[in-house]
Amino acid sequence: MNSQTRFPKIFSCEFFPPHDAEGMDKLRRTRAELLCLRPEFFSVTYGAGGSTRERTLATVMEIQEEAQVPAAPHLTCIGSSRDSIRAILHRYQEQGIRHIVALRGDLPSGMRVAGEFRHANELVAFIRAETGDYFHIEIAAYPEFHPQAVSAGDDLERFRLKVEAGADGAITQYFYNFDAYCRFIDSCERLAIAIPIVPGIMPITNFTQLARFSDACGAEIPRWIRSRLESFGEDMASLREFGLDVVTDLCRRLLEQGAPGLHFYTMNRAAPTLAIWQRLGLPVVG
Known about the structure:
Blueprint: E1 10-15, H1 21-34, E2 41-44, H2 53-66, E3 71-76, H3 82-94, E4 99-103, H4 120-131, E5 136-141, H5 152-165, E6 169-174, H6 178-190, E7 197-201, H7 207-217, H8 223-231, H9 236-256, E8 261-265, H10 271-280
Helix pairs in contact: 4-5, 9-10
């Protein structure tokens, strides 16, 4: 991973937009607890076809108004028009938001029309055409390749197109196979792809939930990890302790080998991320 060592380490956290006032209060507490990590940004997900658009906007605006950690909204293009994306971009500019995670996204259930964009590289190119260098654009990367990709080679080519369209950096899908990330970085290096590719980190706290997420997004749970998690049954304390060991070891190896930071998929909870951070011995403020 020599190509990644030249980039400064960036740590960030991801949230999803809450469904109700109670969820928003919980997220406020989570954000407050994570401030001690001094993350580079808080990203906020965007539902399929813009299904969480208003909740995403509200969450992003609240984070941005606090001005303690910059907001980085996700923006998906499938099912969207150029006019609708343009309006969102202008709204973000008006609020002083400078960081966007540009994604293709998925069609909502029942929707058959993809809209005016088919791939994420088209969205990245559109953002650049509309706003120049105003936004720092992150894209998605798949060390184990996208579940809908024809092949690993095709997926890598899609990634290259996004980079060439104007991406500044990338955040990976979560993974538990260290070698998969290393091989992906080596493949990017051979293509002269020169952007930071930050590993996405998913703490392990609930096996049923993790298995469902992984089946949907194509992230592999290595057999030895899956078997151990299954063996704990209802013993959640042991499961979480084992999960903490596994993910902390993965993060330590990634950082030692030159990964340019970590991006935590928090699921709107602070404790798992804080526990990993503490075990890694990373600095805490306050």
